[in-house]
Amino acid sequence: MPAVSFQSISKSFVTPRGAFHALRDISLDIEEGEFFGLLGPNGAGKTTLISILAGLARATEGRVSVLGHDVQSDFAAARRSLGVVPQELVFDPFFNVRETLRLQSGYFGISNNDDWIDELLHHLGLSDKADANLRQLSGGMKRRVLVAQALVHKPPIIVLDEPTAGVDVELRQTLWQFIARLNKQGSTVLLTTHYLEEAEALCTRLAMLKHGHMVALAKTSELLAQASTNVLRFKTDDALPALLSAQARVTGRIVQLPAQNAQDIERQLAALRDAGVRVEDVEIRKADLEDVFLNVMARPDEQDAQTLESAI
Ligand SMILES: Nc1ncnc2c1ncn2[C@@H]1O[C@H](COP(=O)(O)OP(=O)(O)OP(=O)(O)O)[C@@H](O)[C@H]1O
C-alpha cells in the first residue's frame, strides 16, 4: 500500500477573472520509506497539493489517501499518519516552546510525551529555548519549533513544505541530519524545496510541477542521467555569438553551456575565440539537477504546445 496516493487530483479556484486551474489531473503514489521531492517554480501548485493532502483544502476532482485512509472520509486516521511542516510561520504567541509541543501532543490525544519532546528539542538544537516564549524566537528558531510540532505524534509520513526557505546553513544541516535519520528508521518523507542541491542530495525520487501539470516523475538518478553530461562554465563581459547565446544559461557575468562531449566543448571555445569573446575562470563541470530542472521547465507545456499547434 502506498504511503500517499494522489489519484487524478485537479484543483480550480474561483477568481474574479473566472476559474483558475492550479492543479490538473495529478496522479502519483509515494511508497513507504521513500524520500520524495516535489519541485516546481513559484506558483506551480506544490503548496496546493500539500494542502489537499493535509486536508486543509479540498480537491475539485480526484481523491487522496494516506496509508489507505481517504483524507476526506477518514480524516482523523489520515491526519494522524501525517506530520506537516507548513511554509507559513503561524503560532499562538502566548505559549512557550514546551507548552506548544505539549498542547500539540494533547491534540493527538498523547499525554506524558516529554521524553520524545526532549529528544525533538535536542535534535533540533532547541533544548535551551524550551522555556522561551514563541514571540522571543528568531524566524529560524520558530521554523525549528514548527518542525518539532509536526513530529510530536511520531507520524510515519513527514511532509515538509519549503522547510529551509530563508534559514541559515546551520539549521539546514541540523534539520537534514535529523530528517534523514528518521527516514533511515522508516519514515516516509515528502519535501518541497527550491534548493535543488538539497533535493539532489536527499530525494531518491522527484516529481516536477509546472502550471499545475506534472511534467516529470522519475528517480533522481534517472533524471540526472538524462541531462547533458557536462557544462562549460565561464565568466565574460562580452556578448555571446548568436549560436551559443541560444543555449546558454546566463547569470550576471556567469555563462553556462551544456556540452555532450569534448568535441562540443572544443567547438564552443573555438566559436568564442572567433567571436573575440574574452573569457575568465573557465571550468567544466558535471550537469546537476538544476540543469535538468531548467531544461524541463524550458520545454513548452501542454497548454503552450496546444497554443503552438493552433498557431501553425
Ligand atoms: N485561494 C486561492 N485563490 C486563487 N488562487 C490561488 C489560491 N491559492 C493558490 N492560488 C494560485 O494557485 C497557484 C499555485 O499556488 P501554490 O501556492 O500551490 O504554488 P507553489 O508551487 O507552492 O508556489 P511557491 O513555490 O511560490 O510556494 C498560484 O498561481 C496561486 O496564485
UniProtKB/TrEMBL annotation:
Question: Which Gene Ontology MF annotations are present?
Answer: ATP binding
Q: Which domain of life is it from?
A: Bacteria
Keywords for the protein's UniProt record, in alphabetical order:
ATP-binding, Cell membrane, Membrane, Nodulation, Nucleotide-binding, Transport
The ABC transporter domain is annotated at 4-236
One Pfam family per UniProt: ABC_tran
Output the PROSITE patterns linked to this UniProt entry: ABC_TRANSPORTER_1, ABC_TRANSPORTER_2
Q: Which family does it belong to?
A: Belongs to the ABC transporter superfamily.
Protein name, UniProt field: ABC transporter ATP-binding protein
Q: Which organism is it from?
A: Comamonas faecalis
